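pipeline/complex-builder :: batch 7 item 3
reading input block
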Amino acid sequence: MQYEAGKPAIEVRDLAKRFQLKQKAPGLRGSWQAVWRPEMREITAVSPLSFTLEEGDMLAFIGPNGAGKSTTIKMLTGILFPSSGHATVLGCVPWQQRRQLAYQIGSVFGQKPQLWYHLPADDTFRLFARIYELDMKSYQRRRDFLVEAFQIGDLLQTPVRKLSLGQRMKCEIAASLLHSPRLIFLDEPTIGLDVVAKQQIRDAIRTLNETENTTIFLTSHDAGDVESLCRRVIVVNHGRIIFDDKTSVLKRQYLRRKVVDVRFADALTEPFTLPGVETVKQGTYGVKLEFDSRQIPVESVIQQVISGHTCNDINITDPPMEEIIREIYAV
Amino acid sequence: MLTQLRLTTTKYGAITLTNLQNQLAYIWDALGRAVFIILIMFIFVQLWTAVYQSQNTTEIAGLTLANTIWYFLIAEVMELGKIRHDTRITEEVRDGSIAYTLVRPYNYLAYHFFNGLAEGGVKMVLIFALGLPLVLYYAGSPTLTWAHLPLVLLVMGLAVLLDFFVLSIIGLLAFVTEDTFSFRLIYQKLVFILGGLMIPLDFLPDWLQGTARVLPFNLTTYAPAKLFVAFEWFQFRQIVGLQLLWLFIFGAVLLWQYRVMTQRLAINGG
């Protein structure tokens, strides 16, 4: 089936995945029983899901651990066969036309390496160029573009095992983009990275979307990724969609709380309080504050913190995804 | 058509070349591991010299002591140089990296074959090179003629392919069972006993020899080693025929298994 421009990049209808899991009671007796009379339990990783994603859109597909995000990605990339339902990705049924689809999609799994560990990233890049049947001229052009976008020019000749996590992740993502995929699945692309590396990766992904109209399908536990990249958010929990709307709506309703961790140079002698700000935790040299950023701007809180104390470190984060989902359920 | 053929050749060639670079990055490590062959061959030489002396004979089942020593070097080269992709497939399923390797535009098993070819090739060359001086010292030059060498190399190639098919069947079981160690262990032991790795099939009792010769295990190890030390046209034709027959059988099993296993692949969790 040929993909027609203007059609949704992803169309999912009642897609579900169930696994059979072997159960074992604790202890030796349980192990013995599991050998002779194994008890199987069916778990539903993904309950029937339906959604569409337009070409050029940037979707955050988020949820807590075990929500079924990665399983959904694996079905949409063709690795897993669904238990029921139907999906097309760029006009292909992923699990039936996996190879045909592979030329058009890219995937990044933040916790799994794809670069050859003992070789410089450039060697894996060349290998991917051959695997995706790129001619050397367009490969070189594409490589140069990605080197600039991800600022990895000085990393490509170093064996991957010698790179830091942030450096490696930038190379991992660039490797997945060499064949100019029209759709990218990003599964936790910024996990474990520092603020600078996260920002560089987000900027590069945004550039790709703006310049090449690349469709982005992102899963992340980092609310910052969602906020800064995606226009639309789908929240799944226990394999079901519990929120599907614009990021601005999610932000207005649920991403309003901010967490600020402060390390002071001097010991605190009395309880730390700021009006409208909750002091979650206080130690001798630090506090953890939480507040509603709609009521008090982040700059105002920081200003008040640094005006009275000398600070060694300040860290601003969003509440964890689990907390946001709890809030969605609470509404 | 020609362009597609060129792209496919380049694609799989690049996979082999990349792994070759990877092997060369750790060549000293590989060399260190291959040195073990010197000890193995030294033990074989002492053992079989004692056996021939105790029998007070220069030939057992048509093989001289020199033939037997050469036989074991080639058998070890075939065994230790095998493409061990079954363990890699198992690891891919366990750590989830199959999410990358299965979704690229190539044939998944062909990827593993050409990937393993570099690793196996390097190991074969190292083991042969390290074992050669000792074997030349104790057994002299091999009796194989230059004219027969390409035919023996053909049998070796088919042996590598046949072994790859069997290990692919074992590796793909990981899609469902997640662990394939026990299957691999059984296969290794069968090759050890019925494949001629422990003892050339010619030395086995007749009833066991007859069975072992038609089974696939000897075709990966014994067959190339035996033809290397004592080439016979009749045996060559028989071996190649059996290799092709088993390749056809295992190939059909693989095609069916791949279709079924990819549908049942279970990697839940991130």
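note: Residues 195-212 of chain A form the longest helix (18 residues).
queue -> next item
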